[in-house]
Design brief:
Elements (H helix, E strand, L loop, with lengths): L1 E2 L4 E2 L18 E5 L5 E4 L5 E3 L6 E6 L17 H4 L8 H21 L13 H13 L3 H6 L6 H14 L9 E11 L4 E11 L9 E11 L4 E9 L5 H11 L16 H15 L8 E7 L1 H4 L11 E7 L4 E8 L4 E9 L3
Antiparallel strand pairs: 1-2, 3-4, 3-6, 5-6, 7-8, 8-9, 9-10, 11-12, 12-13, 13-14
């Protein structure tokens, strides 16, 4: 007991076992080994008596709380990381390489004539001649036109159409009775030009029984590896239909009615010639009637060796004032006969 003059203060010695309440800040937890009562104690090494049962209280280190799992803070990323580029496709590259490859193959193939079969290539002229006869007999105008050189196909097609209508062959050509062909320039290995000669019966329009012929000239085109027609010459058609048509035009007593019988280049000269003979014979403006007619020289002109413009092919018309003799020339392009002059005139 201590007396400070006013109050008396009792001082007690420290308790050998001081158990702090569980809410203490110490981190050491002790449990009674007998009753399991829990205490928080200031030391982890001392043994304390249990206030409940007197047993030993042993300190245990408090389990550390598990570390809080930290959320990963995203790092700063580059633009390429934030906006990744789509995975590139190899398809365009494959297509590009394929196109280039095909172009190279095509160029090489063209240079080596690998694809000429697509344009009807056929260097063997024996087969060309055989195909031509078959197309002629079947009147395959498309195939015949396609056999002509591309630069002349339209012109050749018009000529075939003219021949078909002019000779009455609108439904069928006269069948070929014989055919021969030959290389006319170059060799079989290196051909340049060739000829097909055909013969057939029937010139059409009044000459169905007459023998006709045709000469087809061909030219080989190395770059296409094939043959092309560059000329077709047929025996002249029958003169009789043309001669009768002239007789009808003459009966009109109008020289203008005769213009269709003249070549365009000769039209003016021929009109002047007939006008002059009309004045001399006194029949200008009124033609003497024709009572009969006869022709000559046609068979000679139809021979394969004949020069069509030089051969003298005549038609003589009988009139009351004397004969009217007309000179004819055959035009292969128009497949018709045209008047090229007067040999005799009525007087």
């Amino acid at each position: 007991m201590i007396t400070d003059g006013i109050r008396q203060i009792a001082v007690f010695p420290p308790d050998p076992l001081v158990l702090e309440p569980l809410m203490s800040d110490t981190k050491f937890v002790a449990h009674c080994a007998d009753c399991g009562h829990a205490y928080k104690v200031p030391s982890e090494t001392k043994v304390y008596p249990c206030k409940e049962c007197g047993g030993k209280v042993c300190a245990q280190v408090e389990d550390e709380e598990p570390e809080e799992e930290l959320e990963e803070v995203p790092q700063h990323r580059s633009i390429s990381q934030r906006h990744p580029r789509a995975k590139s496709s190899k398809t365009p590259m494959i297509i590009g390489v394929t196109v280039i490859g095909l172009a190279l193959v095509g160029a090489l193939g063209y240079a080596q004539n690998w694809f000429t079969f697509l344009s009807g290539a056929e260097p063997d002229f024996n087969k060309v001649a055989e195909a031509f006869v078959a197309d002629w007999n079947s009147r395959n105008l498309d195939a015949l036109e396609a056999a002509h050189h591309p630069s002349k196909q339209a012109e050749f097609g018009a000529t075939l159409a003219t021949i078909s209508s002019g000779r009455g062959w609108s439904t069928a050509f006269p069948n070929v009775t014989s055919e021969t062909h030959r290389i006319s320039k170059g060799t079989v290995e290196n051909p340049e030009q060739a000829i097909i000669d055909i013969k057939f019966t029937g010139l059409g329009l009044g000459a169905e029984e007459a023998e006709g012929w045709g000469t087809v000239s061909w030219q080989f085109e190395p770059s296409h590896d094939r043959w092309y027609i560059f000329d077709l010459t047929l025996a002249p058609s029958s003169l009789e239909p043309r001669a009768r048509a002239f007789r009808e035009a003459w009966a009109s007593s109008d020289l203008n009615a005769l213009r269709p019988f003249f070549l365009d280049a000769e039209e003016k000269r021929m009109i002047d010639l007939f006008s002059k003979w009309g004045e001399i014979g006194g029949w200008q403006g009124e033609h003497p009637p024709i009572t009969g007619m006869s022709s000559s020289g046609e068979e000679v002109a139809r021979k394969t060796s004949a020069h069509l413009y030089r051969e003298e092919v005549l038609t003589t018309y009988q009139t009351g004032k004397g004969p009217l003799t007309i000179k004819w020339a055959y035009s292969g392009a128009e497949d018709t006969w045209n008047v090229k002059g007067l040999k005799e005139s009525p007087k």
